[in-house]
């Protein structure tokens, strides 16, 4: 019986990668961005938790942006 490898998901934004790691997602590895070698690409295991956390972070940031714009 062979163990299936989970698909991988590339994340290009460093702060997003940090947030995903803080939420307990598994970082597989990092690599240089092919188009812009001065940047890193963060590679995560693509699973249900990663998707849920990406949605959570996106909604959180959207709400923070909306709240911050109302203060001005």
Salient structural properties:
2 helices, single chain, alpha+beta, 3-stranded antiparallel beta sheet, 72 residues
Q: Mean pLDDT score, rounded?
A: 90
Strand order of the largest sheet: 1-3-2
Number of strands: 3
> Which regions contain 5 or more consecutive residues with pLDDT less than 50?
none
Oligomeric state of the chains present here: single chain
Distance between the amino and carboxyl termini: 60 Å
Strand content: 15-25%
Structural class comes to alpha+beta
Number of DSSP helical runs: 2
What sequence of helices (H) and strands (E) makes up the elements? EHEEH
Mind describing the biggest β-sheet?
A: 3 strands, antiparallel
Q: What does the overall shape look like?
A: flat
Radius of gyration based on Cα positions: 15 Å
In helices, the fraction of residues equals 40-55%
Descriptive account of the structure:
By secondary structure, the chain is an alpha+beta fold. It has helices at residues 14-22, 48-71; strands at residues 8-11, 27-32, 40-45. Strands 1-3-2 form a three-stranded antiparallel β-sheet, covered by helices on one side. The protein is flat, with a radius of gyration of 15 Å. 8% of the residues are buried. The model has no long low-confidence stretch (mean pLDDT 90).
Short account of what is shown:
It contains two helices and three strands; from the N terminus they run E-H-E-E-H. With about 70 residues, the protein is of the alpha+beta class. Strands 1-3-2 form a three-stranded antiparallel β-sheet, covered by helices on one side.
